[in-house]
Amino acid sequence: MKRLCTICARGGSKGVRNKNIRDLLGKPLIAYSIEQAERTKLFDIIAVSSDSKEILNVAGQYGVQELVKRPSHIATDEAPKLPAIQHCVQTVEQNVSIQFDTIVDLDATSPLRYIEDIVGAVELLEKRNANIVLTGTPSRRSPYFNIVEESEDSVHLVLPPASLYARRQDTPPTYDLNASVYVWKRDWLFTSQTLFGKGSQLFVMPPERSIDIDSELDFTVVECLMKQRSEKVGPDNVQGTL
């Protein structure tokens, strides 16, 4: 079983300037994902994709050998992430003459994940013969009662009317995708048009490991949680143990 880990990190960021290499407790943010991938001991190769030379240089300093320069047309604010992952996989496969079986993408802005989360998501895909595994966390608020849309003359619930359920506790369990870990069968990565449906599985992570940094507030919260974790378990164990 050949496994590739991709970490895709654009240079531009409007919410948090230079967030992928911003210092977080003495390390650039992207370093946490690189080190987590290495400590799983799951991957034949770890690759970082970026349009930024600075990010690629930092990744190289942390031992990444496959540094993939992302073309500008898939590195814009509007560009979806999937083409960047596909480009990274294809580039690495050409470089090393290997076709991988399992592709794992780690979001560089999710440093709170544990190593066990990566291992668990990969095991879920391979043991259940799934096509894709997504990671998520229990919804903080039920979307059956709390997600609304505003039209010109009213506000209405996005999901079925709350009258179908007498209490919040009666609604089906729902989860927020946290974008922390994505695991694909290689063929599914290149042929599927959706992340959902038949053959998809969810790996559930707790809320305290599910924050994706997209704003200064997110960064502050993550930094606070990382400090608390370091004080509790020590700096060598802040990313979990196997």
UniProtKB/TrEMBL annotation:
SUPFAM superfamilies associated with the record: Nucleotide-diphospho-sugar transferases
Gene Ontology MF terms in the entry: nucleotidyltransferase activity
Record flagged with keyword Ubl conjugation: no
UniProt keyword Nucleotidyltransferase, yes or no: yes
InterPro entries per record: CMP-NeuNAc_synthase, Cytidylyl_trans, Nucleotide-diphossugar_trans
Keywords associated with the record: Nucleotidyltransferase, Transferase
PANTHER family: HAD SUPERFAMILY MEMBERS CMAS AND KDSC (PTHR21485), N-ACYLNEURAMINATE CYTIDYLYLTRANSFERASE-RELATED (PTHR21485:SF6)
Name of this protein: Acylneuraminate cytidylyltransferase family protein
Record organism: Alicyclobacillus fastidiosus
Biological classification of the source: Bacteria, Bacillati, Bacillota, Bacilli, Bacillales
